[in-house]
Amino acid sequence: MHEQAWKAGECPLEFTLKPLLHPPLERDLPSNHTELQVYLRWLCDTEGVRELTDAWGSCLVFALRGSYLVGRSRGPDGVLGTKDDVVVRVAVR
After folding, report:
1. What pTM did the predictor assign?
2. CA-based Rg of the chain, rounded to a whole angstrom?
3. Per residue in 33-91, pLDDT tens?
């Protein structure tokens, strides 16, 4: 593996470090509807946005389903519930 040494001010990459914040919950992920609302507000505040959107500009949809937190994007067609939706499930228990 080749490593490049850069002098101060010469590195072509720019990035900003944000402080690592912990959600205001008893656990890392929400376990009920009230905690889900708190968690989503915390995510928006942390990212500095009014709402969480996907790559196509549509609002993301979140729900607790059994022991999973489900996040859904409407996908490129912008319609919820079609086969191009992007769905992520994360176990919360």
Report:
1. 0.68
2. 18
3. 998 999 899 889 888 899 999 999 999 999 999 889 999 999 999 999 999 999 999 99
Distance from C-alpha of 52 to C-alpha of 58, rounded to nearest angstrom: 8
Q: Angle at the Cα of 73 (from 27 to 33), degrees rounded to 5?
A: 35
Helix, strand, coil distribution of the chain in percent, nearest 5: 15, 20, 65
Report which DSSP code applies to 61: E
For residue 47 the two structure tokens come to 């990212």
Structure tokens given for 15: 């990035």
Q: Are 69 and 92 in contact (CB under 8 A)?
A: yes
